[in-house]
Amino acid sequence: MSLAMKRPLPEPNQTIQDPPAVVPLLGPSTTSARIYKRIRLTARKSTGAPPSILAYVNLLEDTAGNSNDALQVLIKISDAMLFDESEFPEAIRKLVEHFRREPESAVRVKTLSLFGDLAAETGIDCGALIDEVIGLLKGETSAKVVSQGLYALERIGRACVGPSVACTNKMVFFAKSKLFSPSHNVQRHAILLLGRFVLVSDAEKESLELIGKYTDSADARVRAQAIRSMLTLGERGVALPASMYARACGSLADDYECVRKEALQLVFQLGVRHPEQLVKVSKDSDQEVRLIDDAFGRICNAICDLSMHIRTLAAELLGGMTMVSDEFLHQTLDKKLMSNMRRKKSLHERNAEHFTSGEWSSGKKWADDAPKELVNAEAVSLMASGACGALVQGLEDEFLEVRTASVNSMCKLALKNPPFAVTSLDFLVDMFNDEIEEVRLRAIYSLTAISKHIILREDQLETMLSSLEDYSVEVREGLHLMLGACKVSTKACLSLVVQKVLDVLLKYPEDRLSTFGCMQRVGQKHPEICMSLTPQLLQDHPFFDSAERDVEDPSYICVLIMLFNAAQHLPPMLSLFPETIVRHYAYLRDTMPNLVPHLNLGGQPAKLALTTSTGSRQFLETLLNNIQSSYSAPQARQALLKAAQENLDRLAEIDPSFSGTANFTAVFFGTQLLMEQLQVATTGQPTKAPLKDCLAQLIRKCLKLQNLFSSLTLEDQLLVKQMCLRASALNLVLVVKDRSQSALAPCQLLLHIASDASNFLQENSALVADSFTSAILTKLAAVGDPRPGRVFREILPVVQAAAPVVIPKINTNIKMCKAHILEPSESSGSTDNVVKVTAGLIASVPFVAELENLQESQRQNLRLKIKYPDQNVHVIVPRRRDLKKIMTEQGESESHWRLRTTVLLSHGVWTEASPVDIGICLAVRPNTDLELCRPVKVQFAPKPVKRGI
Q1: 105-157 pLDDT, tens digit each
Q2: Which UniProt keywords apply (predicted)?
Q3: What is the pTM of this model?
Q4: What span, in angstroms and rounded, lies between the C-alpha atoms of 317 and 920?
C-alpha cells in the first residue's frame, strides 16, 4: 500500500510536532509482500503516524446546514492527502452520505473533485469509487455538479491501473446518456470521457461517428472537444477514416481559435495516415490530388491565420509532412502565384484552338480575343494558394515563435528532400541576421543538420561569415560548428573562411577551442583545396627560407591543425611541409592529441589507432575471475581488490569507451574492500585506519555508486542497493559499539534503505536477493519496536557472519558523470595570471566546463564549489539557463552539456596571491557533495583599500 507525499495540515485545535528529519546518507534504494509491508509500517512508526481521514470527515456531521464550514473541511482534506488508506472505504461512505444531503451545489462539486484527488494521489479502489460517483450523478440536476462528476470520472479512470471492461462500459454508457444535456460543459466532459474510455472496437463502429456529429455544435468548446476526442481515439489505435477529412477542413474556417487549433491537428493526422488517398480540389472541380498534398496546402494556408498560436502550430506541423509532393514542397519557398489566378495559355496554343474551331478575331468587338477560361479563384488549380510562399511568410513573421517553428520545419523537410535543401539554403542564410538570438541559433543548427546536402557558394559565405562577429558566444560557436560541417565550392571560398575565422579569433581569443575544432573539421572535409593553399597559408617561399613562426600563436595553430587533418586524407601534402613544421607537429601532437592526427612526418611511421574494447573486456573478465577464485581466501582477496582498483583506474584512462564500466567496477571493489575491513572491526579486532575515516569513505563510495553512474541494469541496481544496505547495517553496528554518538539517525537510515530495497525486490520479482539482504529484511520485519538497541541486537550476528559481496557482471553500457573545466585553464593558476581586486569587492572569473553523461535527474544537484586558502568553502547553484546541451553535427547531444557562467570571488586582504580552487560537484545530501573533476586553481589577490591621496 502506498502513501501520497503531501504533508497534512493540522487541525485548528491540534498541535502536530514535525518529526526529526532523517538525512539519507545513502539514499533510497522482502522477498515477500508481508516483509515489505512490515518494514513500511515499522519505518512509519519511527516518524509518526499519519492523521486520520475519518477525523476530518466526522467534522462534516457538525456542519449540518452550514455549507461554508463544510466547504472548508473539504478543502482541508484535499490539502492533506497523507492518510491511512485502511480508513478510505468508511471515509468514502460518509462523504457520499454528506453529498446526498448537501443542498449547496458548490459543496457537491468540491466533494466530487475530492474523489478525483483521492484516486489520483492514493491507492484507493477505483472500481468501487466509479460506481459511487455514477450513482450520485444519476439523480443530480445541477449542470455544474454533473460536469464536475464527469471530469472526476475521467480522473479516476486514468488513475486506475488497467480498468476493467465493466468499469469502462459503465462510464461510457453514462457519458452517452449525458450527451443530450443542454449544458455545453456537460456535453464537453461527456465527449472527453468517451474519447478516453470507449472501446476501440466500439469506436470504429459507432462512437467515432457519434462524436463527429458534435463538430457541428453551436458551442465552440464542444466542437473543439469533439475534434480533440477524435484525435485521442486515433492515439489509442482507432483507425481514423479518410471520410472525416471534409469535416476537418470545414472546421479550419471556424471563428474560434480553439476549434481551428484542433482541426489543424486532425487534418495533419489524416494527411499522414492516408497520404495516397485522392480527394477533389473543390466541390465544383473534377481535379483530384493526393490527400497529403491537399492537407499540406491547407496547413500552409494557416500560416496566414490571425492567431499567433495557430500560425506557430501550422509551422510546426509542416515539418512532419515529409511525404508531400515536390511541387507542393518547393512552392512554399516561392511567393509567385499563377497570373491573377487565371489559367492562361501561350499564343501558339490560343492560335491553334482558334484554327481548329474556325473562329477568328474580327477586331470589331472589344476583347473578343481575351481568354475565355476565366475561373473562380477558389476553384483554381492544381495546388492550394496557401502553399505558395508559406514557409517564407513564416520566416518573416513578427513573432519569434512562428519564425523558430518555420526554421525547424524547413530543416526537417530538407533532411528528407535534398533538392529542397539546396533551395532552402538561401532562406536559412538570411535568418542569420534575425534580431533574436534564439532564431539565429536555430537557423545555424538547421543549416548544420542539412550540410550533407549542400555546397556553399562565395556569396552565401559572405553573409555567414559576417555573423561570426556576433556578440553571443553561442552564435559564434554554432557558426564554427556549421563551417566545420559544410563544404565549400572553390579555393577562394576556403581562403575566405580561413581568413575570417582567424580575424575573429584575434577579436575573441576565448573562442580558441571552438576555432580549433572548426579548423580540424574544415581540413578533414577539404583535403584537395587545402593542398592548393598550403604554401600560401604557411607563407613558404619556393626559393628562400621563411622565418619560423611562433608555435604558441593561436592563428598559426589553427592553420597547422587544418593542414595536418587534411594531410591525413591526402598524404602527398606532407611533401609540401618545411622542416620547421615537422618539429611543430611533434609538439602539437603531444599537447593536442585529440586535434592533431597521426602522420608519417620526420621518418616516423604513422601509428595505427588500435581498438582496445575487446582487450579491455578480456582484461576485466580475467580480473573478475581471479577475484572470484579467491572467494574463500580473505587476505588474497583483499590484495587482489587493491591491485584491481589501480588497474581499473588506468584502464579507464586508456580506453574512454570502457571508462564507465571500469570506474564503476573500481568504486565497487573499493566499497567492498572497506566493508571487509569494517566487518572485522565489528568483532572487536583493531583496524589499520581510524574507524570514522573508514566509515566516511564507505559512505562516499556508496553515494558514488548511487549518483554518478547511469545505464545500470536491474541486476546492477540490486547490487548497489544491497551494498548500501550492508553499509548502513555496518554503520549502525559500529556507532552503537562506539557509544560516542546517538544511534537514532543510523537506525532510521537502515529502516529507510531496507524499505527501499524491499520495495525494489517486490517490483522486480524476477530478481533474487543475496543471503545477507534476505536475512536483514527478515530480522527487521520481525522487530516490533524499532529502537536502535533492539535493531542492533537483531542484526549483529548477520553482519558479523556476512559473506563477501557478489562480483558484478560486465556491463559495457555503464556511463559515469564527469566534468572537464575548459576555462579557467591550467595556465590561469600560474603566478603570472593573478586576479586582483580591492578587498571586499567582487572579481568575476569566466567559467566554462563540459559535462559528460549528465542525466536530467542530476541537473538540479549540480553545484559550483569554491574553496579559499583559509578553508572557507562556498557552494553556488548555477543558473539553469547557463547549462545547455552541446550541439554536434548530428544535433543536440543527449547527455553532454556545457556550463558557461561567471564565478564571483571576494575576500579580505591577503599578503600575497594565493590559489582559490574552483570545481564542479553534485550535491547528493546536505553538506555532502561528489566532485566531478579535479578543481582548477586561480591565483587571487585581494589588495588593501587605499585611503587618502
Answers
A1: 998 999 898 888 888 877 777 888 888 899 989 888 899 999 999 999 998 88
A2: Nucleus
A3: 0.77
A4: 41
